[in-house]
Amino acid sequence: MVHSRRDDVVEAINTRHCNPRYLDGFDLHPSLTASSDLSEVVSTADVLVMGVPSAGFRDTLREVAPHLRPWVPVVSLAKGLELGTGKRMTELVEEELPGHPVGVLTGPNLAKEILAGSAAAAVIAFTDQTIAERLQEVFASALFRVYSSTDVVGCELGGALKNVIALAAGMADGLGTGDNTRAAVMTRGLAELTRLGVALGGEPHTFAGLAGMGDLLATCMSPQSRNRYVGEQLGRGRSLDEIAAEMNQVAEGVKSAPIVVALAQAVGVYMPIAEQMCACVEQGRSAVDAYAGLVQNPASREIDPD
Predict the structure, then answer these.
(1) Of 36, 70, 202, 285, which sits with the fewest C-beta atoms within 10 Å of its C-beta?
(2) Weakest mean pLDDT among 71-75, 109-113, 141-145, 290-294
(3) b/e map of 230-254 (b: 16 or more CB within 10 Å)?
(4) Alpha-carbon dihedral 9, 10, 14, 20, rounded to 10 degrees
């Protein structure tokens, strides 16, 4: 059972097996039911899956807390960081729902492609390998391959940090640059998110997998990507307020960019792409000036020796 605050969404799922607000044109499984009563959904859950944007994640956890049975695993789908604290969503779960195993399901998973029946892969990460493997079986299907990991920090950071790089990739398209530029942005963006992810406790190999490079590629290239779309529109000269007004879903990279830059500065990690995106969303720097700033940065060794 799923929860939605919107009665129209609940009605559509229960009676028409669809979600026209977010997934228009796609049929949902007929056994899926929905309710606007949070306690009804949470109190019987054997696994709690949190598909909530980062901005409302902590408040939702506080609503959930009185209704969740002890020791029920919590899986985060959110790919963002908390404004003000810079904390990951699993850290918020640990604070608001202590005693519950917590992990993340992440990867290059564009919802509409999965519903259309296209093959996809994801990774589920818990520090407890046994829990990860049990939930691996729960989420996997014939066309949805799920790998397991114990690197919760790395998997979660990969999903959050790539959104900022996707802004830059979309911006390149909006400016009309070629494939060379886009490839450079994605490659150097992967280097940036890997440096910061490792500095914050992630394992290096995680960022070369589904949670890092895989998610980055999908988000930077797909026209379905909200973050790429925002970057593309910024590249075309539109304002952030104008772009946000026409969207009904969150582009996490916009809110994450300042947090990512602050985290990078705190641990001494150089992230020029993230810094330029932060200047665009916070200070109104133009896409042209942002790319000029990246080109003018002095080049160094591409890969530092161990």
Answers:
(1) 70
(2) 290-294
(3) bbbbbbeeeebeebeeeeeebbbbb
(4) 0
Query: Quick check: is 87 catalytic?
Result: no
Separation of first and last alpha carbons in the chain: 48
From CA 115, how far away is CA 242, in angstroms rounded?
30
Tell me which residue of 251, 14, 78 sits closest to 3, measured CA to CA. Answer: 14
Judge whether 197 and 158 are in contact, CB under 8 Å: yes
DSSP string, 253-270: HHHHHHHHHHHHHHHT--
Domain residue ranges in the chain:
2-152, 153-296
Pick the CATH number of 153-296 from 1.10.3210.10, 3.40.190.150, 3.40.190.10, 1.10.1040.10: 1.10.1040.10
| Active-site residue, selected from the candidate residues 79, 87, 112, 162 | 162
Q: Would you state the structure tokens that stand for residue 244, as one six-digit string?
A: 């946000």
Residues 6+ apart with CB under 8 A from 303: none
Superfamily of domain 2-152: NAD(P)-binding Rossmann-like Domain (3.40.50.720)
Task: Quick: pLDDT tens for 112-164.
Answer: 999 999 999 999 999 999 999 999 999 999 999 999 999 999 999 999 999 99
Q: For the residues of 161-185, what is the DSSP string, one character each?
A: HHHHHHHHHHHHHHTT--HHHHHHH
